[in-house]
Amino acid sequence: MTAPQFGAALLTGLLALATLASCNTEGDILYTQRQTWKDPNNVLQSWDPTLVNPCTWFHVTCNNDNSVIRVDLGNAGLSGTLVAELGGMKNLQYLELYGNNFSGPIPTTLGNLTSLVSLDLYSNSLTGAIPTSLGAVGTLRYLRLYGNNLTGPIPASLGRLTNLRNLELQENALSGSIPASLGNITKLQYLRLYGNMLTGTVPLEILSLVLDGDLAELNVRRNNLAGTVTSSKQRVSNIIQDTLKTAN
Questions:
Q1: 3-state secondary structure 85-125
Q2: pLDDT score, position 88
Q3: CA 96 to CA 118: how far, in whole Å?
Q4: Is 40 helix (H, G, I), strand (E, B) or coil?
Q5: pLDDT at 5
Q6: What's the burial of 127, exposed, middle or buried (CB within 10 Å: 0-12/13-18/19+)?
Q7: pLDDT band at 186 (very low <50, low <70, confident <90, very high)
Q8: Distance between CA atoms of 31 and 218, rounded to whole angstroms?
Q9: Which string of b and e fits 88-120 if b means at least 16 CB within 10 Å?
């Protein structure tokens, strides 16, 4: 074998080992997560840590490099908490955990998932604040956290998610004002914040998305917001809010 051939073979071997190590790490993370969950329907029965990688497990999708890119466990009857180790799945694009009974906080480490496109944690029993670290996931298009028990303010850092199409935080217990930084998300199509305890007014920066962006629905009803807004722009299908509050 010539020196160039040896070098190429060595590189191929190292890449294969790196891929295997990545797969094993992702498998370890997912198995750690499995151990914290209650699974009465045995939907995670195939999550066997003795296999070479998790790509053969049900509800897990891998790319051509055998790296996990999707976890699909919506409406699976699971309960328990989300482990911080999930933030180590660097190639994950879709984390679909909606419609279960997960509790506890959203791990701040999910802000390390820099390939994530969709984070769907809606219709669970999650508590605590929305992590400001999620503002670092610039690839996010869909952030749906509605129907939980989340508290605290809407992080201003979410305004850095300029690829976001859907921001759905309704039916929680969020408080404080609506961050003006959300007006930076010019591709936003659905902004649903209803059924919280938000105060103040809808920032002009967000209202500008009606004129200059792609916003199709802005729903802020059932909060504690002052005033109201209207628009005559036909492209916006819905601006939904409470009626104007009048002074006594």
A1: HHHHCCCCCEEECCCCEEEECCCHHHHHCCCCCEEECCCCE
A2: 97
A3: 8
A4: coil
A5: 46
A6: middle
A7: very high
A8: 39
A9: bbebbbbbbbbbbebeeebbebbbbbeebbbbb
